[in-house]
Input
Amino acid sequence: MEPCAQSADAVRRAAILLITAHVVSMLGFSSFAALLPELRDLWGLSNAQAGVIGGAFFFGYAGTVSYWTALTDRRDARRVYLTGSLLATAGSAGFGLLAEGFASALLFQALLGAGIAATYMPGLRLLSDRVAGPAQSRYVAFYTSFFGIGTALSLALAGAVAPLAGWRTAFVLSALGPAIAGALVFAGVARQADRNAPHAAPRFSPAMLFPLAAWRRVLADRAAAGYTLGYAVHCMELFGSRAWLVAYFVYSAGLHAPGAGFPWPAALMASIITLWAVPASILGNEVALRIGRRRWILLVMASSGSLGIVLGLGAAWSWILVLALVTIYAMLVMAESATLTAGLVAAAPAELRGAAMGFYSLAGFAGGMLGPMVFGAALDWAGGAQHPGAWIVAFAAIGAGCLAAAPLARLFGRAGRA
Output
């Protein structure tokens, strides 16, 4: 069934269900980020080790996303989504019940990442296959932007539950989200005909994890290659900053005199700010449709990379000013997210859309894997989390790719014209 063959109401219902499932599937995504300061101290971790645990989610994601997304070219994406929801449930529940330190935390974070890999992009595939024309860009923008709502809810849940019932309970409760999401999608989204082999499950092969021939065809398209690289540096900054946002608030609060710091818990502030950043992605896509995607992406990347360095400098400033700067920073970091994804979906050849989206997601979440690690390693290298200059270095490290985007775009643009 082609997207245009479906009624507008059917498309709208499917989109609402997929976006809702996407949000609740994310409930375990930021549990570790919300509890990073507590678990770092409890397990005696260095900042680099804490960053590695935060990045392990993206290791699991990046290591499997190509397989899951390429599989949607050949099989019912609802089944892929259901498999991912079960893996994500196991990752969050396993962390809460069994994690005892660095090694076990790595394992369960990676399992959670593999599960989310099989829900996020296959869910986007389910959506994009059911929407055609100008509406596709807007639905894609909403879907990708609501990643932030899922992140905010995850931060809020962990931050609210852990003080009352302990961090283990927070992780176990978050496991309910992906279980509910899988049931919603499998039961509520109408099945479409399988694409190439409707009666036989594809056998596993290394090419399904790394479809190099398809990726070469995708990268041969300059637009698709540019959106993919842009997504990688965007995710490095986005997930690096989100992984350490609660820890940054804790650090900033420690620089203020008693009674002069933040009036709210760090996890709650991080949750609200992440939620407020969601409209920035949707509105950013609308601006990009008017002024051009390339111009908007480069402008936003330069702004977010620069403001991150200002945050590192200003941790000791008035809590009102710090909170305002963090909010603006979070909105800038999100402002080109939907534009990048909508651009990739529009640029990718229809017969390679699954492989293109898989490679795009692989590149982006490889950047997401590096972000928390680079941030934590930079903190340690520059003197530790209590050293003011270390936070400047850490924010600069995760924003370096965004700051370099505009000069590199000009350089390669001149080379292409030559």
